[in-house]
Each structure stands twice: as C-alpha cells, then as structure tokens.
# Entry
Amino acid sequence: DTAVSQTPKYLVTQMGNDKSIKCEQNLGHDTMYWYKQDSKKFLKIMFSYNNKELIINETVPNRFSPKSPDKAHLNLHINSLELGDSAVYFCASSPRTGNTGELFFGEGSRLTVL
Amino acid sequence: SQQGEEDPQALSIQEGENATMNCSYKTSINNLQWYRQNSGRGLVHLILIRSNEREKHSGRLRVTLDTSKKSSSLLITASRAADTASYFCATQGAQKLVFGQGTRLTINP
# Structure
C-alpha cells in the first residue's frame, strides 16, 4: 500500500565502500526525485527524473549515480563513500515535472558512513 | 537563492494555543508549499498556495502569501500534541521545489 517506498531504511558502512538505495512508487507518477537531508534538517534536491529521463542534476559529485529502469523506480548508487555523505536520503515523486504540484515522499534512508 | 527561510527555527507552545511560522524567499515563484515532517519520517504535504493567491485554508491550517514581500506564513490554530513536528516551506520555481531549513514546533501538554 505504501505509495513511495525506499530500501534500506538504515545503512551503516565504511568509508570507501559502494552502496545503493532503491526507490519505488506505485502512484503512476511521471517524475521522481532524490533529496538529501543533512544533520541540520536542510533538504536539498539532488536529482530529478521524468519518465526515465534525467531532468535535474544539482552539481552532485559524480560518485552519485541515479538510475531509472522505468518510471516507477529511481535508484541511487554511491561510489567511494565519504564521511560527508552521511545524511538521510529521501525519494519523492510527483505527477509531472515543471510546475510541480505536491511531492510524495518516502520514509527516508539514513546513511551513516564510518 | 530561491531557498525559503523559515522563522523561527524553533517554537514551543502550550496545547490549544495557535502557532505561526513564517517563510521568506528571494526570487519569483509559481507556488509555495508547506510540508510537515514527524521525527524520523518522510515529509507530508500540507497545503499549496499559488502565486496569484493570497490566503488559503485547510482544516486548522491557514496559509498566507505576500508576493510583494516574498513571504508566507503558516498558522496552525488550536494546536494539539500531534502537531509536534518540523514544518518546511518549499518554493516552486521553473523546474524544482526548493525547501527551507524548517521550523521545529513543539506542543506542550
């Protein structure tokens, strides 16, 4: 029943490792996003995909690579993890890109890099 | 930048009182949205106000928008313990929704 689901919810790993976070939405939306929330609760957009096509890439290091196999899925792969990557990563979706209406968020994936 | 800035950063009130949070932004917008985030959870959309609207209501929520001052306010009336959460404003530009840092609201019983 969950509209936007992310896995895993918690991820603890060592510096230098590679990890992935998966996201799926069952709302039939065309657009999906990744946001990063830091320890001060600041929420910053990272990527946006519309129907599998990359729309927004907010000067995120190229260690971060999103992949959208279909419009219901948007995964985030992170190479060579650094301490500063520790954050909560949120996936979200919306019916269309551009003049966005409301976003529907997943519950977040808390990444801790040791 | 387009980013909204909420004020205050933290607010603590007694149950039953009204809570007012403010948001200021810098560039022109298509709409402004407010979201709630409970601790450890995702953000939940509360209300959207378009740039040509001045006020909007939804249940105990009242949102105002003043585009000349580039500011918005969220009023929660008759607060309840369950309203304890962080509240974020988000401004919609050409392509993306940009969030502020949020107001942490605590309702004391």
User: Anything to note?
Assistant: Chain A touches chain B through 25 residues (CB under 8 Å).
